[in-house]
Amino acid sequence: MSDPTRRDFLRGTIGAGLASALPLTALAQKPGQGVPPAPMEAWQAAGGFRFVHLTDIHIEPELEAARGLAKCLEAAQAGKVSPDFIVSGGDLVFDALEASPQRAKELFNLYKKVIANHTSLPVHPTIGNHDVFGWARKNGITPATFEYGKAMVKDLLGLKETYYEFDHKGWRFFVLDNIQPAANAAQIYQGNLDRTQFEWLAERLKRTDPKIPIAICEHIPLMTVTPFAFPGTYHDGKWEMSNSLVCGDTVERLKLYRDYNIRLCLSGHIHQLDRVEYRGITFICDGAVCGNWWKGPRDGVKEGFGQLDLKPDGGIDYTYRDYGWRAVAS
Ligand SMILES: [Fe+2]
Q: Are 220 and 180 in contact (CB under 8 A)?
């Protein structure tokens, strides 16, 4: 936090007689300019950076969700350390799976409008199950319908592919698309990478300098303890959870990840919150921007977003931030 008393004192001192000791550029500054910036956090000065993870936004025209997202974006960018970028963690809209083509487009356009009006930061989107158009096959939608499946979100968000990588200040980020059509007829989707994406990831990991810390972002968690608290997960002497809740390819991916410098695996989907440290990787399953689909907190987890401070040595500081939303329906 800045210290106005000290700032005012310094300004007063300059005005009272030290002006002759200042360079001309300083003298030309307007009031309020030339104030020394707040000291950088030590980790930031050493090359660290902050980003924010806004997952499970589930924007819709109802329940003042657009105002909620705007408030969340404002909170995410407030404070003395600015985030360098936003990762939007999937389930951007509610809901393209079951909506008509017109409604689905309206939802994505609403998401884009609120983002455009409330941030100029780069936003890296992740695909969630609710962002896939028409897979529920309602409203007469078939695979022949224009922009069926992931084509709509790719088109409207300008994505060449639903998975990609980018580098930032010494870290490498992989944003994955783990939403696949379900093999089981009782489900619409399941969580895992398809072969093409798995092989692409394996190849890219192999080509990444082992000194570079890696962060992986995806929608459905690869590893989370949150389902252990769900009624029904334990029954008939067994723990059981669906691959629509937690990825089904965890064993294969953990085996792949062992050989590489992966530090962070970030997900959402559950609208609950945990941080699991396992085999040198921090798995964060983040809480939801929408909480309980804009109807209040979800089982005690408030509407919020993840704030991540990453260090050049691979260190991670994580904070879940409640942005102060009060649901109109609660
Ligand atoms: Fe969600």
A: no
Domains of the chain and CATH, by start? 1-38 (no CATH), 45-322 (3.60.21.10)
Q: What is the pLDDT of residues 105-161, one digit of tens each?
A: 999 999 999 999 999 999 999 999 999 999 999 999 999 999 999 999 999 999 999
Give the residue from 19, 24, 82 showing the smallest Cα distance to 48: 82
What is the distance in A from the centroid of ligand 1 to the CA of 3?
41
- Cα 152 off chain centre by: 20
Specify the pairing of strand 85-88 against strand 49-54: parallel
Tokens 């064993």 belong to: 251
- The residue assigned the tokens 């300098």 is 209
Ligand 1: centre distance to CA 222 (Å): 15
Instruction: Output the CA 48–ligand 1 centroid distance in Å.
Output: 30
Residue 198, pLDDT above cutoff 80: yes
Three-state secondary structure call for residue 66: helix
Neighbours of 36 (CB within 10 A): 9
- Spacing, Cα 109 to ligand 1 middle (Å): 18
State residue 15's pLDDT score: 32
Structure tokens at 17: 């007689």
Helix (H) / strand (E) containing 50: strand 49-54
Angle between helix axes 195-206 and 250-257 (nearest 10 degrees) is 10
* Structure confidence by residue, pLDDT tens digits, 224-254: 999 999 999 999 999 999 999 999 999 999 9
pTM: 0.87
pLDDT in tens, 41-100: 788 888 899 999 999 999 999 999 999 999 999 999 998 899 999 999 999 999 999 999
Å from CA of 300 to ligand 1 middle: 16
